[in-house]
Description:
The complex is a heterotrimer.
Chain A: H1 2-27, H2 34-39, H3 45-55, H4 61-73, H5 87-122, H6 127-141, H7 144-158, H8 171-205, H9 208-215, H10 220-232, H11 234-257, H12 263-273, H13 276-304, H14 306-313
Helix pairs in contact in A: 1-13, 5-6, 5-8, 5-11, 5-13, 6-8, 7-8, 7-11, 8-10, 8-11, 11-12, 11-13, 12-13, 13-14
Chain B: H1 13-19, E1 43-48, H2 63-72, E2 77-79, E3 88-90, E4 93-100, E5 103-108, H3 123-134, E6 149-154, E7 159-164, H4 186-191, E8 207-213, E9 217-222, E10 235-240, H5 244-252, E11 258-260, H6 266-271, E12 278-292, H7 302-311, H8 314-322, H9 350-360, E13 365-372, H10 375-390, E14 393-400, H11 402-405, E15 422-427, H12 434-437, H13 456-467, H14 471-487, E16 491-503, E17 507-508, E18 523-524
Parallel strand pairs in B: 1-10, 13-14, 13-15
Antiparallel strand pairs in B: 2-3, 4-5, 5-7, 6-7, 8-9, 9-10, 11-16, 12-15, 12-16, 17-18
Helix pairs in contact in B: 7-9, 8-10, 13-14
Chain C: H1 6-12, H2 22-28, H3 30-48, H4 83-118, H5 121-136, H6 139-150, H7 154-181, H8 184-191, H9 196-232, H10 244-253, H11 260-287, H12 289-293
Helix pairs in contact in C: 3-4, 3-11, 4-5, 4-7, 4-9, 4-11, 5-7, 6-7, 7-9, 9-10, 9-11, 10-11
Amino acid sequence: MLSYLARRILLSVAVVLTVIAALFAMMHAIPGDAVRTALGPRASEAMVEAYRVKMGLDQPVLVQIWRFFSTILQGDLGSDAISGVPVARIILAQLPDTLYLVAGAMVVAVVPGIWLGVMSATHRGSLFDRVTSVLSVSVMAVPSFVIAIYLLLIFAIHLSWFPAIGAGEGFADRLHRLVLPSVALGLAWIGYIARILRASMLEVMGENHIRTARAFGLSERRIMFDYVLRIALLPTITVLGMGIGQMLSGAVFAEIVFGRPGIGKLVYDSIAARNYPIVVGTLLVTTGFFVLVNLIADLLIAFLDPRVRNVVSR
Amino acid sequence: MTVKEMTGVSRRGFIASSLALGAAGLALRGHPALAQVSTEGGRLRARLYADISNLDPAFWTSGSDALVMECIFAFAMQFETGTSEFNALPLALKALNVIDDTHIGFELNEGILYSGEYGEMTAEDAKFSWERIADPAVQSPYAADWAQLDHVEVTGRYSGTIVLKSPFAPLFTTTLPATSGIILPKAAIEAAGGQFSTEPPVTSGPYRIREWQPRTRVVLEKNPDFKLFDVVFDELVLIPIEDPKTAELGFEAGDLDHAQTSISSIPRFAAAAPNGGRFDEFTALNYYWLGMNEANADLTDQKVRRAIQHGIARDAVVEAAYLGAASPAAGIIAPGLAGHRAENTYNYDPDLARSLLAEAGVPDLNVTLSIQQTAEDLAAAQIIQALLADIGVTVQIDQYESGSFWSLGIEADGDQWKSLQLFLFSFTMQPDPSWATAWFTSEQVGVWNWQRFSNEEFDRLNQEASTELDTEKRGAMYIRMQELMEESGDFVFLTFEPIGTLTAAGVMPAMRPDGWPILSRFTKA
Amino acid sequence: MSSAVDPATAAVVKKPRKARGAMRRLVSDPLGALGLGLIVVTVLAALAAGLLPHDPVKLNPMVRFAAPGAEHWLGTDNLGRDLFTRMLYGARIALVISIGATVASLLVGLLFGVLAGFGPRWLDSILLLLMDAMKSVPTVMLALVLITWTGPSLWAVVLVVVLVNGPTYARIVRTQVLALRNAEFIEAERALGAGFLRVASLHVVPNIIGPLLILAAMDIPIVVGIEAGLSFLGLGVRPPTPSWGTILFDGFSYIRDSIWMVVAGGLPIVITALGFTFLGEALRDTFDPKLAKR
């Protein structure tokens, strides 16, 4: 178990480092940079050069990467190429809005997803099951940015039920503005969760210990919740772990369409401005977040599922 | 970050600001839009088209910076609002006295207090601040605003004389009434290490910064020590929103009380402003044109460039891009400024275009048109594509996000300038014609002169016009310069971008003639 | 862009059962039939695009933002172009890109999967790490960085798809290769001097291609979404080429002026996505014994 843990963590770190090194190198091959942007048109070449030196942009890429990694290891993400504000501060200011969005999307996905999954599994073959299965597949297929635009058109513009843009202030206002983008991001995952849960419940229900429990005369309800669901929920954890990555991706669109601040918008804007410190910092944070969530999901499953646990410790 | 945009008047920028760019895609060309207001509690919520990035008068970068600086610093002079002509009035200055062409006496109002322990604004501070920007050692990108400054002589606690090396027309139009005229105490700048960025060590204006959350909001609160004019709103909340279409949605949803709209929405809002608010339209100074890189192998023949000029029906391009909200321009100097040009020297003539191409021996020309990813550029580019197809020129449209776009013609950024052909560009302007022509000199080739237009007469006139104080003579020089640009075949002047603003019921905006809001002067209606 | 999920993938990868009458069963599944029907509609639309009276790139600003009517069935866009025509032409781009990019991803997946499976241990580890790394970056962010580098084009879109989907396929192939690698008949062949390319093409590919194709069919909506999403951001096709993504971008820009551009750009994405997803589901149910039993 311990070596599994160690290997898993090591792999995660290696993945993050690989990603950052690759992105960092790639961005240095991109034409255009933030220096000219920062200094404006009247800057002389001498000034531009001096600024590049100050930012370390005159160094070979490998040297820059080395510096970058060594400062990161000291917990420093560097400074915004233009305003000089620490990158960590900028990212921290944007992170909460994206996390709220992802959390909102999770709620949108998980609550109906679990309900539909349980109901389908317990009413296998019924009309409800069949309709749910078609709907699940349907919502899974549609890209979230298309959903976002339609939600904006229908609910914000035509019906005016929800505000069109911004993240809002105060709890109620924020929540109100979170609804549409969360639905846009989470809708597809209702389908994924319902399907996975239904499948895994059916599988668990066919296992021996459940039949045994039934034979002992435990109530159906108790069997469902205490025995079946507990185990059957595990695969949905994996799905949600993967889902975080897709949601972060979708967040770029959701934040653009709904005019929200956030990490997705930040990375989009920063790439356009060639603000490398922010791009690299943001990608480090998102990739790290994604890898971390999946690490936790895997460990959680290894810990909770007796079957996996046995395999793992072997 | 930083988005840039071409906004009206941002100073330095024109481009620069625009350059900066950051922003992104959808919204790239935003405008300084600003504002929104919610009247309760004396709070005015305004939209910024980009987050602030630097508030130092010697180093600021975007129009948003300038907008915030106008709230937190007492400008030396400030443009009058609500008028159709630019009229700069003294603000921190009490009076200006033109002694001769190169000596301008000034007197400061007494009792303007800085924040903190920095006391009162004095002539020594003016000397320090203005000379600081002019000082080559400081390397301010704005040094040209004080290009002719010899020195500032202090003659009293509140009075002094600006001594110029030669006459300098932009002094009263774009230097003193803008960021380069800002007066700050030496002690504060030195305490900050010689310069600052987003955390000013000192303020002197109608508002001071209470809180800045990067990319989320800037909150300003009224400065009780400010006495130069009455300030109505207790609090300004400035929210960065790059995309004007997004801001429109926000205004309509009641989230914004004052916002600049996108140009293509002007007709719709002019017909009916939402929520009982008001809609105002302004002619901005920004100029929008199609440029051709004469150094590109396919375009070196002037006949080819002139053919393309004659093949583009400018009114059709402008109509389609802006949905009828703008009209074609004959140059780069907006109406109301010396040097504005009413007529072109040529007309749309596809037959002539075809015969020019035949003469040049290029019956099948393929060119690329580089644009930014905005709805308006995209529409304009597609109309141009269709028009040029009609004269036998095949156009491929290349869209770029701002970071790539702004380095396309810059030699220092690589070799891509060689393959640059046609491009749509828009520069912001200051209310002085010298700001329009400065970018097209031979010196600017490969910097901002992406056409690589180079003409001796033009360069000479550009030099002379900035020291010519006779408005009429000056205007004639600028008109001649635009003719030279046009005759080169490198330019197709398209339009001056109009600016539309929405303001909520209950708020009275205070706008310069070019649609630039002076937020500290907004009042309740 | 939503995307496939590993458990689903895992399910598909069971060995295919060469079922007789599979096609018949496929069409008798109502969902499969519907999926097939939607795809046929999309393909026909792409083919029929050229037959329409309007030119998809012909501008006519005088009739911009027209509502649907006899002349313009879905109305016109901000430049007065016929939206119905543009929508059908958009189907060509969507189909060509999604199928082309998917084939490219499959080839890349096969190549790297076989390399990882047959290659030395260190190569396997490096490839695995790269695949994991690739999947850890949110798709849109990866695409943004990549396309800023390459410049916007259809090829760049294909590249993004290959980078996003290729690693998934490579992993599946690798797993299959590892399973076969030590099989006696393979060892015998290799002992006789067969190169691994030969072994791969004779034994690995035939074994894996069925499930891979099903999986690929189910991934097509993702690819359509990637193409449309990138075109929406201005990183895909060049104007005036009609793509559903660029139509959506125009529609979003002028959402207050006309809703029909959003309809013309979004609806076909939904239809195509549903078609391929339904078909993929039905294929899986048909060919996967375990899931088909349910």
